[in-house]
Amino acid sequence: MPASRADNPAYNFTAPLWEWPAKAAWFFVTVPVEISDEIDARTHGLTNGFGSVRVRVRVGGSEWLTSVFPDSKQQAYVLPIKKAVRVAEGIVPGDDVRVRIEVTDLS
After folding, report:
1. Which domain holds residue 89?
2. pLDDT of amino acid 47
3. Does the residue 46 lie in any domain?
4. 68 assigned to some structural domain
5. Do 77 and 69 contact (CB within 8 A), yes or no?
6. Helix (H, G, I), strand (E, B) or coil at 14
7. Is residue 2 part of a domain?
8. Higher pLDDT, 100 or 49
9. 58 neighbors 100 (Cβ within 8 angstroms)
10. Residue in 78, 87, 64 with CA at minimum distance from that of residue 15
11. CATH code: domain of residue 54
């Protein structure tokens, strides 16, 4: 992944992988509240559908573009982790996942 530009903040964190309660085969990690609050402040008025924010993600050797979505229950953003990444990185629900996200849409 290219180095972050000064105007595209990047964040590193570790969080457990969890499955959406409806057992719909959607898996996520929760962005820590402090980071979520900072992303929210930086992107206020610039969010996409459902309040989503576009990000570039790295988990292990996998990189992709996606969005984080606000979760009102957790008062934080959640990051979907697609099956191809879970398989490639050997992660399952309950595993702690090291994540790097870079906010890509700030204008």
Report:
1. 10-103
2. 61
3. yes
4. yes
5. yes
6. strand
7. no
8. 100
9. yes
10. 78
11. 2.40.30.100
Condensed to tens digits (0 to 9), the pLDDT of residues 55-103 reads 999 999 999 999 999 999 999 999 999 999 999 999 999 999 999 999 9
Distance from C-alpha of 21 to C-alpha of 60, rounded to nearest angstrom:
25
User: Is 50 strand, coil or helix?
Assistant: helix
In a domain, 3, yes or no: no
* pLDDT: which is higher, 53 or 1: 53
Q: Annotate 23-88 with three-state secondary structure.
A: CCCCEEEECCHHHHHHHHHHHCCCCCHHHCEEEEEEECCEEEEEEEEEECCCCEEEEECCHHHHHH
Query: What distance in Å separates the CA atoms of residue 60 and residue 82, rounded to the nearest whole number?
Result: 13
Total domain count for the chain? Answer: 1
CA 102 to chain centre: 9
pLDDT at 43: 85
